[in-house]
Amino acid sequence: MPQPLYVFDLDNTLISGDSSTLWSRYLVREGFADGTDYLRDEERMMQDYARGEMNLHEYVALTMSPLRDLPMALVDRMVARCVKTEIVPRIYPQALALIRELQASNQAMLIISASVSLLVKAIAPVLGIAHAIGVEVKTDNGRYTGLIDGTPSYQQGKITCLENFLVHHPQHRGAVTFYTDSINDLPLCEYADHVFMVNPCPQLAAHGELRRWPQLNWQLTPA
Predict the structure, then answer these.
(1) Alpha-carbon Rg of the chain, whole angstroms?
(2) 111 touches 10 (CB < 8 A)
(3) pLDDT band at residue 35, thresholds of 50, 70 and 90?
(4) Is position 147 within any domain?
(5) CATH assignment of the domain containing 92
(6) Are strands 137-140 and 143-148 parallel, antiparallel or unpaired?
(7) Residue 213 in contact with residue 197, Cβ under 8 Å?
(8) Quick one: pLDDT at residue 222?
(9) Predicted TM-score of the model (pTM)
């Protein structure tokens, strides 16, 4: 019998904040990126994202630009430090409690995020989630480029990535339960069997109200 699969968005769902933005600010703080134009452009594109209008190829090109001359091994070490200092303190305790509950009953879990995979795959083990999909970035001569490789896990592309995952993990073709905050995930919400909105944006909340999707209000500290 196919097993159920619990699928999570990452940014503003499992963590308070966006890992790509936190990473960009980390790069500026550590001196790898110029703060003025870089952060201004990143913020502008994230505003597009909030409206469901981001050009992801442009965003990846921008946010990967400070890394193009750095060896991948160095970047990966930088990511590990960023996860420890910037991401871990922002993990919702309610998310961890749910993950531990699912682990205890041997449920399969998967993160699908529109952040780049080098971030997502570094964060997933900290959360205790074995499977993670992020936007793959092409490499060249041991360095990350600013080009997306394959179908990005963004908007409709999240369905494609999930279906590709299920081809290789057919045992998880049971009911899909999806947790997200973002209007960008509406296609996957409509694909899933069950949806939980976590601190949803106004656009997603409006759709969810019509469909009677449950809403979870997670926070870093108790009210």
Answers:
(1) 17
(2) yes
(3) confident
(4) yes
(5) 3.40.50.1000
(6) antiparallel
(7) yes
(8) 59
(9) 0.96
